[in-house]
Amino acid sequence: MAVTPLDADSFRTLLRRQAATVTVVTAPGSPPVGFTATSFTSVSLRPPLVSFCLDRGSSSWPTVERAGHVAVHLLGEEQHEVARTFATSGIDRFAAHRGWRWGPYGVPLLDSPVAWLVCRVTQRVAAGDHAIVLAEPVQGQHAGGGAPLIYHMGRYASLTSPPEEQAAA
């Protein structure tokens, strides 16, 4: 049996079946940048390390490539619009979303996420058309027991309202 490599569309269709938490990563700059990411994960407890991935062709990459610190915001189930705003290209995301303030190290902090982490970037690893960014959390806060926003099958959902089954595109 011959095995054929997956093309990008088939790969994307398969991975849509993996549920992921939705985060917004922000970085200081003039102007600051922010983007929606579902690739956030914890990497290590000793030392504490997290990672996220970013397309090196994205408008946010030049700022993240130079940033010493970033903030990762774990969005709550009611924050669909925040996720959409920071996923929209070609707009000033911070003008469109006014609920933010300057935080430690000049990193923009969004209002009302389930939790946020300010992280020191420790490494950037090229991986295909993306970069894996490794970062050490240096500060953080959580808002209590809020349910996370989930991304599954191309839709935002929550743990209390799973996404409806959709046909693969």
TrEMBL record:
Q: Which GO molecular function annotation, any one, does this entry have?
A: oxidoreductase activity
Keyword list, A-Z: Oxidoreductase
What range(s) does the Flavin reductase like domain occupy?
15-158
Top-level taxon: Bacteria
Question: Would the keyword Oxidoreductase turn up in this protein's UniProt record?
Answer: yes
Question: What Enzyme Commission number(s) appear in the record?
Answer: 1.-.-.-
Tell me one Pfam family matched here: Flavin_Reduct
Question: Per its record, how is this protein called by name?
Answer: Flavin reductase family protein
Organism in which the protein naturally occurs: Phytohabitans kaempferiae
